[in-house]
Amino acid sequence: MSRGDVQQAITQVFHDEWARVVATLARRLGDLDLAEDSAAEAFAAAVERWPADSVPPNPGAWLTTTAYRKAIDRIRREAKRGDKQAEAQMLFEDVPAQPLGAIDDDRLRLIFTCCHSALSMEARVALTLRLVAGLTVPEISRAFLVQESTMGQRITRAKSKIKTARIPYRVPSAADLPARVSGVLAVLFLVFNEGYLATGCDADPVRPDLTAEAIRLTRLVRTLLPEDGEVIGLLALMLLTEARRAARVTADGELITLDEQNRGAWDAALLAEGHRLVRERLATGTAPGRYQLLAAINAVHTSARRAEDTDWSLVVGLYDRLVRLDPSPIIALNRAVAIAERDDPAVALAAVERLKDSLGGYHAYHATRADLLRRLDRCEAARAAYDRAIELAGNTAEIAHLTRRRDELP
Amino acid sequence: MHYLVSVIDDTAGLATDEEMAAIHEFNDRLREAGNWIFAGGLADPSSATVVDNRGDEPLITDGPFLESKEHLAGFWILEAADLDEALALATEGSKVCNRKLEVRPFL
Question: Contact, B41 vs B76, CB < 8 A?
Fold first, then answer.
């Protein structure tokens, strides 16, 4: 094996094994902080030794054993400094044995702990990216445009709350599972959306590293919870969205809306996988949840060879079902966009304007309204709406798109 | 593991008779399940007195230590295996006393 091959092997092992090493250690040691630090030390040892000694036959086991030894060493060192109590706690505060089930995997425990509803959403995202995805604190800070020290503190505080308040390290009971899975999916969807519609005036409009990370984590959750329809729905939604990435932004960083995208530039493999997952869910005949409906809507869009071939009645029908599950004004806004295509912009505009009280501070409300006013030749009103949308938008590609549309008004 | 479950009230009223009956019944269930350590309701914050003897002379002042729209109306001290169990009990408690609750671990 060449040096480059070993480097590549280490990167691959890191991707495949990080979560498992942290998760196993967290259960054996009863301490997330120590699990994280010793896993990081074990990977550092691999980077140092594998190029000379070659990659061990079972790299995951090597890493877990190495990390565990490093943790025990540290506990002993700290015990020598007089922290006997801490040693006793770490060594004996093991998680009680639980019945082995189909979903008994330490990584699942780790994910449910990181996404616990007693933690703030920001903390859940940061912890999941650090402990499950293995991103470093500087990487996570860059992704969310916050200072490294702020991100470091956020993660430390979250770990400390888990320990002090005793957030359990376990897979929730069957009764709590749907609500808790939905909490996990919300974290993954937020990570994906931050990659897909990145905010910040100096930021790249799309961060493929974050969308890729979200997809990887969702694939992992799917492996761990293969029967959950919403997990499959979210994965399909992400794949069908990610498939359009290359066609979504121009070379100068302007957003291209769905109707103007070059459909030949969509990623055929991702689309095929997404469509297959949507069909799989449809075939089960069970009532779809929110993510499955969103995935189905995206499947309709991406099935049309040209924008004008889109089956808008089907899209509106899916939105109607979605509104019944999730009566949020944002869903109603997206439904109105489909209404404009199935019926006409005037009907859609009336529906949009009914949302003014709840969405008046949201850029997409003004952008949608501006677009409908433009199509109805109400140029002055459209201009004012574009102005407001540009003021409120946070994504550079969206701002560029809205600005061009406004400047093209007669 | 012990948790302090504080009852946060943003109304001026005491618990109604119906709420009190539901709370007593909930407390009985907590005792039977081994979660009950202590519980109590508190008088209105206007009856509070602050004592500060950190300086040369003790200072006694009328009123709660902080003025706010929300105040502590009572509390439970519960025994629970972990936060999930404490949160499940507090979820039930919030319903029976019809107030918002804060769950906080003892050190």
Answer: no
pLDDT tens per residue, range A87-143: 545 444 444 444 434 345 889 899 999 999 999 999 999 999 999 999 899 988 888
| CB contacts, 8 Å: B1 with chain A | 166
A168 touches chain B (CB under 8 A): yes
Q: Do A166 and B105 touch (CB under 8 A)?
A: yes
At A31, which helix (H) or strand (E)?
none
Torsion-angle region of A225 (φ positive above 0: left; ψ -120 to 50: alpha; else: beta):
beta
Check if A183 contacts B (Cβ < 8 Å).
no
Q: What domains, with CATH codes, occur in chain A?
A: 3-92 (1.10.1740), 311-410 (1.25.40.10)
Joined tokens for residue A49: 């030794």
ipTM > 0.90 (yes/no): no
All structural domains of chain B, each given as residue ranges with its CATH number in brackets, are 2-105 (3.30.70.1060)
Closest in B83, B103, B105 to A168, CB measured: B83
Instruction: State the best of A98, A166, A176, A180 to mutate against chain B, taking most chain B CBs within 10 Å.
Output: A166
Query: Along the 107 residues of chain B, how does pLDDT read in single tens digits?
Result: 999 999 999 876 778 888 899 999 999 999 999 999 999 999 888 889 999 999 999 999 988 877 788 889 999 999 999 999 999 999 999 999 999 999 999 99
Tokens 């969509």 correspond to what residue?
A266
Residue with tokens 């509104």: A323
